[in-house]
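User: Hey, quick favor. My workstation is busy. Could you predict this chain's structure for me?
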Amino acid sequence: MAKIKESPKKHFIAEINPEIEDIVNQALAIAEEGDIKKAQDILIDLKNKHLRENYMICFGLGVVYAFKANHDEAIRYFEKSVEIFPYLAEAHFNMGIAYQKKFDIKNAVKSFREVLAIDKSEDYMVKQSRDFIKRVEQMVKKTMVLIWKHILRLMIYLTMLLPVWKKVNGKRLWRDLRQF
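Assistant: No problem, here it is.
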């Protein structure tokens, strides 16, 4: 796994600790090799050693929980990470993936839009975010077209059937309503 890059956008104060970043990157490399438990232990130990929450530690724990398919916990840590440092595009991207796996399309799109707002490069993460948003927009358009087709069809049927129904049932319906 490549080192995490941070997208400098606006003036923002967050603790940047190269030692923590190195340990988080090492833990993520261990997780990628398949030893997720060891990576989690390293990150939890690192978290316990620091009194303040660190965005990189939260990001690392989010990735570990994503590896474990615990998407709720992954999202919780990614949210903490971007709360501390909102410009970490990788956290937004991974949060979008976790939401996508939970079939929470609205929040997935929201996270992927954050990636596009933060990261102006054309790397894999940005392309994947853009592609997902485009696919969702296409699905919504197709769904809306189908819904309108069904509504129009229903309106045609109603305009054809309503006069016939009134003719057959109109007198009886009026008589039944007067009884109330």
